[in-house]
Amino acid sequence: MVTIANIHDSKAAYLLMRVLKDMCSGVKVILADGGYRGELVNNIKKKFGYSIQVVISAYKKQGFRPIQKRWIVERTFSWMDYNRRLCRNYELTFDSAEEMVKIATIRLLLRKI
Length: 113
Known about the structure:
The protein is mainly alpha-helical. It has six helices and two strands, in the order αβαβαααα.
């Protein structure tokens, strides 16, 4: 989901959960970073039935270590940066920006076949 920069992820989470629910997605557990802490987790569980697992890093204590499953997301973002249209925001609408992300993901999947 693509949102404008001044909307915090925790605010956009409700909209994202509604979209997931409308898609009849089989998603049950969502991995999230520290921006999704607090009562948001409980509210999403009550309202939508999704379980949010917040992954917090401990860089200061342990030094750098890849966080469980989060490195997969970061790696995917770096692969998507190979697409010139995704490394900067060239799109005029959010819908076209979202579609470009989908096209880039499809290209990544096709290269893996």
